Amino acid sequence: MKYSVRNTLILLLTLAIMVGGGWFYVQNEFNEDIELTKNRLQNLQQEYREVESTANMFATAQANYNEALFVRLNHPKELFRDHSSSNFYDYLQELNRGISFTELNYSLSDSTRNPDHGIVNVNIQGEGRYENLVNFIYRLEYSRPLVQVRSVQLDNITDFERLDRVNFQITLGAYYRRGNWTNYRASLEPSGPFGRILHNPYYPLIHEIPPNTDDLPDVDSSRLVVLTGTRAHIIDQNGTLLRLNIGDRVYLGRLTSINMQRGEAVFQLNRGGIRDRVVLTLTQEQ
Questions:
Q1: CA-based end-to-end distance of the chain
Q2: What is the pLDDT of residues 33-49, one digit of tens each?
Q3: pLDDT tier at 127 (50, 70, 90 boundaries)?
Q4: How far apart are CA 189 and CA 112, in angstroms?
Q5: Which contacts qualify for 182-185: CB closer than 8 Å, 24 or more apart?
Q6: Cβ(222)–Cβ(236) below 8 Å
């Protein structure tokens, strides 16, 4: 064996002995410390995750607090001066206007009394457009007087002429002052309405077609015979000659426009929730 090869093997063997001996020494002398350090590291990692989660919760809570504080400072609440039913009735009537109008009745029940305030229990029931009712409740909740909306019950109306309306029952708690109060805002300023509501979930998208009880002209069974400016002359399902102005009612709809150049009368119909455009022409087959 060459001298260089022998020296290399000796060096490798020496290195292996040193590494093995070092590993054996560390395992025997520091094994307990290593396990303790691993456990401590795992505990610290778990503690870090918990602190991070708490920090995230704090950020959310801080945002909620800032929002609540903004509402409190910019939309202050106030209690009614007393439990006068006439004052509360006037307040309801003030809210129940315009796009907040509903046909309602209300009754006052027993009052809960506390040393510094009282609560008048109010029951409201009535009928109105869904959009108006939403605006009315919005004004109750966001106006300055402290009124708690406890429950709302809605029932849709199946009558064809009132499909966009609902029956409702609402229970409220109106807070008023008792005892000694040093300050009082004379004006219990009401909030403005929420605005236009685009969707009424209680309005059936498809509903039954009502019968033609008023014997209105049925466009599907009529024919156009003459056009004169803003008038259309048709022969209806009964064989009767009728003159219709733009906007006049027909069965399920109205006459909406006339086109003299094309010789057309255009009707917009509502076939149980399905909007339909029907065109009668002078050139149609007789």
A1: 121
A2: 667 777 888 888 888 88
A3: very high
A4: 24
A5: 184/78, 184/81, 185/78, 185/144
A6: yes
What's the predicted TM-score (pTM) here? 0.53
Residue 76 corresponds to which tokens in the numbers above?
């202050």
Q: Which of 10-24, 107-121, 141-155 has the lowest mean pLDDT?
A: 10-24
Calculate the alpha carbon distances from 260 to 77, 131, 231, 256 in Å.
61, 39, 10, 14
The predicted model gives 201-219 an average pLDDT of: 81
What are φ and ψ of residue 63, in 5° steps? -65, -40
Closest CA to 274 of 208, 213, 216: 208
Indicate if the pLDDT at residue 284 is higher than 70. Answer: no
265 pLDDT above the threshold of 70: yes
pLDDT score recorded for residue 150: 93
Edge to edge, what strands does the sheet with 165-177 contain? Answer: 103-113, 117-129, 165-177, 147-156
DSSP string, 44-94: HHHHHHHHHHHHHHHHHHHHHHHHHHHHHHHS--B-BSS--HHHHHHHHHH
The secondary structure element, H or E, covering residue 18 is: helix 3-74
The SS3 assignment for 239 reads coil
Q: How far apart are CA 195 and CA 118, in angstroms?
A: 32
- 261 DSSP 8-state letter: T
Rounded Cα distance, 93 and 113, in Å = 25
Write the secondary structure of 124-188 as one string of H (helix), E (strand) and C (coil).
EEEEEEHHHHHHHHHHHHHCCECEEEEEEEEEECCCHHHCCEEEEEEEEEEEEECCCCCCCCCCC
pLDDT confidence band for 286 (50 / 70 / 90): very low
